[in-house]
Amino acid sequence: NAGVTQTPKFRVLKTGQSMTLLCAQDMNHEYMYWYRQDPGMGLRLIHYSVGEGTTAKGEVPDGYNVSRLKKQNFLLGLESAAPSQTSVYFCASSRDPGYNEQFFGPGTRLTVL
Amino acid sequence: AQSVTQLDSQVPVFEEAPVELRCNYSSSVSVYLFWYVQYPNQGLQLLLKYLSGSTLVESINGFEAEFNKSQTSFHLRKPSVHISDTAEYFCAVSEGYNTDKLIFGTGTRLQVFP
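Above: the input entities. Below: the structure tokens describing the complete assembly.
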């Protein structure tokens, strides 16, 4: 099993450009999450999904959109990138809320100039 | 609202010395507690967790953490660290069963020197 994979690993954008980050998991997990990690701030939840076709806002959703059209994939979109969105983005998945262990991908380092 | 406080942003220590990474949480209900570890340029991995039962939990690589309800703490300890333990450690909390979100602390960078 590959676990949780993320593409791309690195990306540089100019202000105003758009892009989509792809997260895929092969563990048949229902729950999937997008976090951003910034120095001194730990991980903050952007959006999450409790199942195929559902999404919900996390702590810092502004400027991002998500979609979960297939159970194994969770997409994070930036419609108009801003320098404040420079960060490392992590995707995670979990089997169910009661068990609560989240499995993380390797991260995507995004720089917005 | 829940919150997690990791009091030390960096902990430098020499190899084979003991270490304690502190974690305090605030919550008005029962909680589940977790420690995750992030090695350089990698994602987070679960190190250990407390869900119920014994308040002392252990990981396979020698770390342990003790849930202290009265002090709302879940400190991580290791009696003798190795160079390979150099990483960032995150404490996290969720409010009981059937909740879908973790709240993470800001992390503690453990740097082990030879």
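Note for the figure: Residues 30 and 51 of chain A are 5 Å apart (CA to CA).
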